[in-house]
Amino acid sequence: MIDVWSSTGVRLPRQMPTLEEMPLPMDDVGFLSLKDGDPPPPSFANNTTTASSSLLAEMIKLSRILLEINSLNERTVSGATSGAILENEVMDLSNQLDGWHASLPPFMHDTLSNVQRFASQGLGRMFVAVYLGYYHFGQLLFYQFLHGDCHSTVLSAHFYANKCKAYAKSLCEIIYASHSVPNCDVQYTMCGHILVIASTVQIHTLLFSDKEAQIVAARQRLERNFEILSQLRMYWPTLDICFTRLQAFHKACRNSMDESFRLDQWMLRFLSEFAQPVDDRIVDGFAPMKVWSLDNIGCSPENLP
Q1: pTM value?
Q2: By residue range, what is the domain housing residue 277?
Q3: Where in the cell is it found (predicted)?
Q4: Terminus-to-terminus CA distance in the chain, angstroms?
């Protein structure tokens, strides 16, 4: 999993290219119950999982889809794919994400009762991590359609943009839920990066939505996300990078609101290279404009434009 994330995030060459051939981990509960000297379970030796399934195995399956999403976004920026071919590839990856979720047993669905059940087994944070990956990969896949949502009459652009917003909303919601259930809160650095991406989707709603309920909800999520990012920074000073990236995005919106969500080389770095700050995004021909103040994210809704 780290190999997949780091190959894009910090531009390191992959060390495990034959990901499909790797055996999947055994059931998490079974692994935790093993004692010193116990033989490997048959399920592990046969590259299968037990009936109760494995959270770590599901994360690895999702990482295989992430590889394809990263590749698609890179080819889109380079101009190697577009039009009907691009849409077919997006549809295929969307079906892969849907298929992954449809294959899960009910006890692994994203519900509060399941979060609590896994927490009682000492696996709450891992369960949340599975869905953080799932929702983040979904928002990465459909992010490029946020630009078309405002500038295209193609129905599929609006459909996919709405899917991006739905994934970002679900990502925020499960992070909030993780803080309400003991032993489930996610406190690792990657949470900061994916929360920044989800926050920019909320900014899209603030800038372009004409529905008051959506705008109010987006403002509330931005406030909550800013609070969580601030809490994480107390543990991880390196998360200053997340704030500088969010500020760079804010500046890009001020310089050109209409171009701020276009998938180009700058946006690709913003979405994927989580360990590096990004330079200011320069768009020629657009005068700076006042959109909203990053400093106001943590304020009350009435102080937000």
Answers
A1: 0.86
A2: 2-24+51-303
A3: Nucleus
A4: 40
